[in-house]
Amino acid sequence: MNNGLKALLIAAGIIITCIVAGLAFQNTREGKAQASSAFAQFNTTMSEYQDLGKSMYDGLLVSGAEVRRLIENCIASKEYVQIKVKTGDGTERGYVYENIDAETMKLGKESKELPSDDKGSDGYINSRAVFLGKILKDENGIIVQIEFEQQ
User: 3-state secondary structure string, the chain?
Assistant: First the structure.
């Protein structure tokens, strides 16, 4: 009888071990799914936060010096955005990326040209002038263009 009792205890131990191992694997899978969901939310939040610096220009009046600083920062950090500047003399120029396809919202040729310091040139942005900002997003909600028009 003693051997039969030992066999039952061993069998019960094996069954309990299998149940505990199964629960551990189930918890691991659920934890992995929750972690994946949390990472997806984090990535979404981070992409929204990264565009926050650009979206603030929508409807905002800024100085020409701020426009020049933004162009320089976007070129230095290789941002995927076109900065379009319309000056008071009717000149229109694209910085960081030269142009944008209006249908596909894809940016054209990359440009590392900075605004000119020469007052007589087409690319001159008056540092004391006031510009009204406007943003343009693609179908994914990513800002692809910031337009500044001199007021």
Answer: CHHHHHHHHHHHHHHHHHHHHHHHHHHHHHHHHHHHHHHHHHHHHHHHHHHHHHHCCCCCEEEHHHHHHHHHHHHHCCCCCEEEEECCCCCEEEECECCECCCCCCECCECCCCCECCCCCCCECCCCCEEEEEEEECCCCCEEEEEEEEC
Same domain for 51 and 64, yes or no, is no
Q: Are 81 and 126 within one domain?
A: yes
Span 135-150, pLDDT tens digits: 888 887 788 889 999 9
- Domain span including residue 145: 58-150
Interval 48-54 mean pLDDT: 70
The domain total for the chain is 2
